[in-house]
Amino acid sequence: MQKLYERLFSRPVFRLQDVPALVPEWTAATARQRLKDLARQGRVGRIAFGVYFLVPPGKTPETTSVDPYVVGAHLAPDALLAYHTALELLGTAASATRVVYYISRTYRPPLVWRDIQFRQVKPARSLARVGETRIAVATQERDGLPVTHTNRERTLVDCVDRLDLAGGLEELLRSVEAWPAVDARMVLRYLNTLGKVTLFPKVGYILERFARPWGLSESDLAPLRARVPRSAVYLADRHKPSRYVAQWRLMVPSLFVQRAT
């Protein structure tokens, strides 16, 4: 049991499936039993079904701090942190939230742990169909563990696609305005893979809005203009006052058009 506890120091948050590999000289049944013993002693805490955290010496499960992003990254074997959570991990979120969003094919009921909600979002069908659910990602280390999240370009597109998971349009614009640059070719590549025609004018409008600070030219925007649908598209709530932006055939909330002019 002590052997397992010592080896868990390299995995402050871990999944039940991880345990046998830490002590390959044991059978899987023995490893699981030793984990139960550690949990009963308060040396390991339980987050959710199959997900645990290490309790360091001198601490209790209640006094052990656990990084919520690391937790989110371990709630499924294919967990990918995304949407507003990715904005936070990218370091420019305009405001903090108590929700961790992660993309995964593996269903898990909504979880609330330590007053933080962990919400699973299914990957887009088009990405799942072509096996590209982990396209355009970045990884950073937190508490010695890798945490994978959508990169800057995918985060922009995904948040535009699901403004409800980004905190709304104003939150998104305030968050991305601090970005030093965006790779327009990567944005276009991801948009083409995603295959949602209505996203081309929405994302194109935002790229144009921040073209100067992001170092974008008309040649970067032209491929997106070429994919604009014939019918007008709404960027946000169609029930609020909007103005038509002709070059993108886009209805944009009046407030944001005024700010940009």
Account of the 3D structure:
It is a single chain. The chain is of the alpha+beta class and 261 residues long. It has two domains: 2-54, Arc Repressor Mutant, subunit A (Orthogonal Bundle), CATH 1.10.10; 68-260, no CATH class. Helix content is 38%, strand content 19%. The protein contains 13 helices and twelve strands. The strands form four sheets. It has a four-stranded mixed β-sheet. Helix 7 (152-161) packs across helix 9 (184-194) and helix 10 (199-209) runs antiparallel to helix 12 (218-225). The longest helix has 13 residues, at 28-40.
Rounded Rg: 22 Å
Range of helix content? 25-40%
Q: Please tell me the total number of domains.
A: 2
Could you tell me how far the N terminus lies from the C terminus, measured between alpha carbons in angstroms? 65 Å
Shape: elongated
Provide the low-confidence segments as ranges.
none
Please identify the structural class as seen in this structure: alpha+beta
Compose a concise summary of this entry:
With 261 residues, this protein is of the alpha+beta class. Helices cover 38% and strands 19% of the residues.
Fold blueprint:
Blueprint: H1 2-7, E1 13-15, H2 19-22, H3 28-40, E2 44-48, E3 51-54, H4 68-73, E4 80-81, H5 84-89, E5 99-103, E6 111-113, E7 116-121, H6 125-129, E8 137-142, E9 145-150, H7 152-161, H8 169-176, H9 184-194, H10 199-209, H11 211-214, H12 218-225, E10 233-234, E11 242-245, E12 250-253, H13 254-260
Parallel strand pairs: 5-7, 10-12
Antiparallel strand pairs: 1-3, 2-3, 4-5, 6-7, 8-9, 11-12
Helix pairs in contact: 7-9, 10-12
